[in-house]
Each structure stands twice: as structure tokens, then as C-alpha cells.
Design goal:
Layout (H helix, E strand, L loop, with lengths): L1 H13 L8 H8 L4 H11 L4 H14 L3 H6 L2 H7 L6 H19 L7 H4 L7 H12 L8 H10 L7 H11 L5 H14 L36
Length: 227
């Protein structure tokens, strides 16, 4: 995996005209690893483009600064601030509930262990792992659609769900590299290894890539389409 990450970094640096930071990496830098803002930002980012997520997060935290602020906020005001993102009604309810639990159960501090994070409403393994990595720099591999897609395209794993991918990556990736996987793979998935029409010509991983070499482990008797 170390070699894969280095090659991805090399391509991203070489093709820097394509490059854009992920929403979580941008939030991590801007908010100096603030656990609460990263947690709320991760919840808001689900099924939403990074550019939109970034704008909404700025609007939300310009108005509310702390878990107590959101816990006490009028739900309609929260909805108005995040209206431009997908599923904003559900997400508004979720971030208010999460803020209330953080205040009432965790003394206003975001927990830094996965078991406690998973107790929060609407927080699944990907969100919990994102908080561990981006807020606390703790080893974890958050698996989203980009990590899942690229891991299978390269042949690192042969899985059908993100949960299966997380399990397999945890087995094969050196723990020292866990915190690098999500950001590097997501940047690569957004800029190079696109869901449709990936930029295979600029990718240095073509030699090992099962997708590029017309093999799909989930459909062994059929060829995968390559671009």
C-alpha cells in the first residue's frame, strides 16, 4: 500500500491543474482539527458534493460555534442554513440530536473512540472513522464510495460493500498508513480515478490495475469496461 499511495501522490502532484482538496481535508486545515466541526461536517457531507458541503459548513459555523449552540438552536434556522445540501431536513434533525447528546452525555466534548461515536444518531462507521482520522489523527480507514471503488479497481480487495472493503483493508494495510488512505484515495477518486471515464492515461497504476486490464473480480467471466 505504501507504493500505491506514493504513486497516487506523484500523479496528483504532477497533474496539479486537476487538484482540489477534499471537503474534510479542507475543514481539518481551516478548523485546526476541531472534532465537533469535523463531525458535523462529515454528517453534512453525505451524498453532497464537496464544494456545496464546504459552503454550507461555513454558513453553519458562522452562526453556531459550539455543540451547545446547535443543541439549543431552532431547527428551522438550522434547516435554512443548510438548505442547499441533499436531505437537509434529515441532516438538520441529526446534527441537532448529535449536538444534544454531545452536551448531555459527553460533557460537550466529541468522544475519540469508535464505540462512543457509533452511539451518536446518524453516525456510521465511515463518519466515525473520519472523525478519528481527521479530528484526532487516530489510525482508522474511513471507506466511502471512492475508497471502495478504487480498492476494487486496483484489485487490492474483491468486495461488494464498503463494510467488506473496510474489513479487508484493515487486514492488508500497515496500520501506520491508515490515516493516509482516505484522503489520498478520495482525492484520487475525485480527480483521476473518476466513477465514469477515469483518466487512465495519466495514472501510474495502470500496470497493476485490474479494471484497466479488463478484469472484474466480482464478475470473473466478464470483462470490465476500461477507458
Amino acid at each position: 500500500m505504501s507504493k500505491v499511495l506514493k504513486q497516487m501522490d506523484r500523479v496528483l502532484n504532477r497533474e496539479n491543474n486537476l487538484l482540489r482538496l477534499t471537503a474534510l481535508r479542507g475543514l481539518q486545515i481551516e478548523e485546526q482539527n476541531d472534532p465537533f466541526k469535523i463531525l458535523i461536517g462529515t454528517i453534512l457531507s453525505a451524498r453532497t458534493r464537496d464544494e456545496n458541503t464546504t459552503k454550507v459548513i461555513k454558513n453553519l459555523f458562522a452562526r453556531f460555534k459550539t455543540p451547545s449552540d446547535i443543541a439549543l438552536a431552532d431547527i428551522e434556522e438550522i434547516k435554512k442554513l443548510i438548505r442547499s445540501i441533499g436531505f437537509y431536513n434529515v441532516k438538520a434533525e441529526r446534527i441537532k440530536q448529535v449536538s444534544q447528546l454531545i452536551v448531555n452525555r459527553f460533557g460537550g466534548q466529541v468522544p475519540d473512540d469508535i464505540e462512543s461515536l457509533l452511539e451518536l444518531p446518524g453516525v456510521g462507521r465511515k463518519t466515525a472513522n473520519c472523525v478519528l482520522v481527521y479530528a484526532f489523527n487516530k489510525p482508522a480507514i474511513p471507506v466511502d464510495i471512492h475508497v471502495h471503488r478504487i480498492s476494487n479497481r486496483l484489485g487490492l480487495v474483491c468486495t461488494k460493500t464498503v463494510k467488506q472493503t473496510e474489513i479487508e483493508l484493515n487486514k492488508i494495510v500497515d496500520r501506520r498508513l491508515w490515516t493516509k488512505v482516505n484522503n489520498t484515495f478520495v482525492m484520487y477518486g475525485q480527480n483521476v480515478c473518476l466513477p465514469v471515464k477515469p483518466l487512465c492515461k495519466v495514472c501510474d497504476l495502470r500496470g497493476m490495475c485490474k479494471y484497466y486490464n479488463n478484469y472484474n473480480c466480482n464478475q470473473p467471466n466478464q470483462k470490465a469496461s476500461s477507458s
